[in-house]
Amino acid sequence: MTTKEETLDRIQGALAGLPAKVVEPRDGMPTLEVEADALHAVLERLKLGGGFETITLVTCVDRLGAERPGPRFEVVHQLHSIAAGDRVRIRTRVSEEEASVPSCVDLWPGAGFMEREAYDMFGVSFPGNPDLRRLLMPEGYGYHPLRKDFPHQGIEPDRLYREWDEERRATWDATPAGGKG
Which CATH number fits domain 4-136: 3.40.50.2000, 3.40.50.720, 3.30.1360.140, 3.30.460.80? Predict the structure, then answer.
C-alpha cells in the first residue's frame, strides 16, 4: 500500500500537461477536478501511465440548489490500482444543458452499465458508449428519477407500466404460435 503522497506524485506524473486540479475532499481520497473536454485524456493517462487499471464507479450527483455555485451535475469516476492498493476519484461538473461527458467504455468495457445507469437515473449522456439506453426504467419513460426536481411521489407509474405491458403482450401475441415454441 502506498502513502497518500506517493499516490499524488504518481497521479501528477501521469497527468503532466493535462488540465486536472487536485482537491482535498473530506474523506481523504485523492480527488481530481477535470473539465469534460479533458476527461477522457485524463482517464486514459491514469490507466496507462498511473497504474489505475480498474474502474470501480461511474455515477452522477445532482447539485440542484447546492450552496456551491456552478453546473448542476457532477459526474464521478473512481479508479483503483490493485498493484499499489490505492484509489483516485475524478469529478467533472456539467450543466443541465450540456449534461454530457465522453464515455470511457473503450478504456474499461465494464463501465458501460455504470454509464447506462447514470444516463437512466440522471439524464447525463456518454457519447461513445455503444449501448447507451435505459437500464432500469422502461424506454418510453421521459424522466430521470434521481434528479432532485423529480417528484417524491413519482410520475404516473401505473399508466406507464400498463402501456409497457400492453406493448409487450402485443409483441408476444404477434410471434409465431403466440410466443410458444
Answer: 3.30.460.80
